[in-house]
Specification:
The chain has 422 residues and is mainly α. Helices cover 78% and strands 2% of the residues.
Length: 422
């Protein structure tokens, strides 16, 4: 039964309230409007003459309630689209408006977001399709083998997989050793910066102390404090991008190497499987860079104490410059060392945490990929062995389903490949 235009208006307004789009977010919405698509779903619930009204109302509501003045609204029926795909009904697919949205989105990605985004997405999709196709091919091959031959080949596969799993375990320890080198390089970079900057700033403190002899103790203290804090901050801000680049490059090098090792292990698994069952699968090439998360911040100035007065400040206030000067100079050199040490310590902690977190994510991804390659193959072989004990008619039914699934996945892969060529 079709929904009335009035009830849809209420639904649109309620949805805008639910997601919190109001006057407070209008500036953000204006910035995002050119990069945002809005889907007006369930258009099959409306009468044909009400659809333009609903689209116009949604556009007005987005402009007034959320600030999306140039919102691109695309009417769609997800239900009709799904039915069209499942039933292979071109007419239903056309009525759903999904092909129109697909063309608009592809054009947007190509022209406004760049081919790189689309290429990466399509490549991942093709790789995923390759893995699914390989699993289907394996199951088909296994179902066609005599039961005893299938069991013997399964035993060979399990022995080979166990050996490769042990090798992968050894790689895990080697990876940790390589990661220690990244930590060591980080420590060297921080120490080098800290020592060189300490020497430079101490020299500058001496220079200012000699040049500003006309200043009172209080004025000298203020000048040196201000200089040290601004100089340390500027030095850190100039150096951190270089440190980030260097450590990230080292981390990526380690990651790439061990991604290759896992690729080789999976490749060997698949090569040996190919020798048994005549199949092939793409390897794993994922790389993880350093996480962008950071809690890094700078702290300057002495830690406050409610009980003890600062003796250097007291000297600067109450003693003549001739007596206070040497004490101020000495304390300011200690301050240089203290400020560098405090902030470099925070940098060290921040990077150590980020490296450890990124390494953990990467290692988990590698282990899961290898384990899934082994487990998926084992599951397929076990399922095929169970089916081989049933009647030929039952086996033929399963083969028919597998071949149909293979055609669908191959079609999706070909579609992605066609998009890549555009």
């Amino acid at each position: 039964m079709n929904r009335s235009y009035g009830s849809l208006k209420e639904a649109i307004l309620k949805e805008l309230e639910t997601i919190g789009l109001g006057a407070g977010r209008r500036e953000l919405a204006a910035l995002e409007a050119t990069r945002t698509f809005f889907i007006l779903n369930k258009i099959d619930y409306l009468e044909a003459e009400d659809r333009p009204k609903a689209q116009s109302f949604a556009q007005k509501a987005l402009a007034e309630k959320a600030g999306f003045g140039n919102a691109r609204i695309i009417p769609l029926s997800a239900k009709t689209a799904l039915e069209g795909i499942l039933e292979n009904d071109a007419e239903k697919l056309h009525l759903s408006n999904l092909p129109v949205f697909t063309r608009i989105l592809e054009r947007f990605l190509m022209n406004e977001k760049g081919a790189a985004v689309l290429t990466a997405a399509c490549t991942k999709g093709i790789n995923a399709a390759d893995e699914l196709l390989a699993g289907l091919d394996l199951e088909v091959k296994a179902l066609l083998l005599p039961l005893e031959k299938l069991r013997s080949k399964t035993v060979i596969f399990e022995r080979m997989a166990a050996e490769l799993s042990r090798e992968q375990q050894d790689n895990r320890y080697t990876f940790q050793g390589e990661l220690d080198r990244v930590y060591h390089e980080l420590e060297q970079e921080i120490t080098r910066f800290q020592e060189s900057r300490n020497r430079l700033l101490e020299k500058k403190v001496d220079q200012l102390y000699q040049e500003k002899k006309h200043l009172s103790g209080r004025e000298l203290l203020q000048l040196l404090n201000s200089y040290i804090e601004s100089s340390v901050q500027e030095a850190l801000e100039n150096w951190l991008p270089l440190l980030e680049q260097k450590i990230e490059a080292s981390f990526k090098h380690v990651v790439a190497r061990f991604a290759d090792k896992t690729n080789q292990a999976i490749g060997e698994l698949l090569r040996q499987s190919a020798g048994i069952f005549e199949i092939s699968v793409e390897g794993f090439t994922k790389m993880e860079a350093l996480t962008g998360e950071t809690r890094l911040y700078y702290l300057f100035g002495a830690e406050k104490s409610l009980l003890l007065p600062d003796p250097v400040k007291l000297s600067a206030i109450f003693l003549p410059r001739l007596m206070a000067g040497p004490k101020i100079s000495k304390e300011m050199k200690k301050k240089v060392e203290r400020e560098l040490d405090r902030n470099c310590g925070r940098i060290r902690t921040d990077y150590n945490e980020r490296i450890a977190k990124s390494a953990g994510v990467f290692q988990k991804a590698l282990e899961e990929k290898f384990s899934s390659a082994v487990q998926a193959t084992g599951t397929v072989l076990a399922r095929a062995a169970d089916k081989r004990q049933e009647s030929k008619a039952e086996v033929d039914k399963v083969l028919a389903v597998l071949n149909e699934q293979r055609e669908q996945i191959a079609g999706a892969k070909n579609h992605l490949a066609t998009i890549l060529k555009k």
